[in-house]
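Example record

Each entry pairs one chain with its bound ligand, PRP.
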Amino acid sequence: MTSARHHVLKQFRWINGDADTWGMLADPHSLSAIIAGLTELARPAQPDLILGIEARGFVLGPAVAAALGVGFVPVRKEGGMFPGDVIRRVTAPDYRGNKVELSTRRDLIQPGQRVVLIDDWIETGSQSLTSAHLVSACGAELCAVVVIVDEASDDARAQLPPIHALVTGEELPVQSA
Ligand SMILES: O=P(O)(O)OC[C@H]1O[C@H](OP(=O)(O)OP(=O)(O)O)[C@H](O)[C@@H]1O
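Structure tokens for the complex follow.
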């Protein structure tokens, strides 16, 4: 965990006003430390399944799932091809103010399963909360949200299962003017 935190704090960058979590995944030492850190944060929830939101959840989630020896299920955003028994929900406005249609595959999530969501960042929590509703509609339970950066509002935190993170938003370098 210390190693993962160190790598995140060292590698994090703002690019043209946007937080960049892709850059830290390009470095092999950061990538492996971050995956190991997220895996250790997810393990206590004893997940049967890892869920990941497009796009960075598609990179981080399967790696954590493989490390834990469980499967991975995607949450796609509107427009992505997604054959199968698809279930859809629209989010409340996210950190950009956008309402996003999220979907997942009902046939890939079994009733009673313990599910952990892996993502890079949480802010308003709108995408995580809608993912929790999708999981619930499948009869399963979202037990934890595990992210690189936790910047969740109190309102989001109150509605979600426990959030575990490598770093908080306040620990990151401030964006220069
Ligand atoms: O807590 P919230 O306000 O819901 O925001 C968090 C979500 O936003 C980011 O995804 P983003 O939509 O930027 O991903 P993308 O640009 O890679 O599609 C992040 O990866 C989370 O999935």
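The two ends are 31 Å apart (CA to CA).
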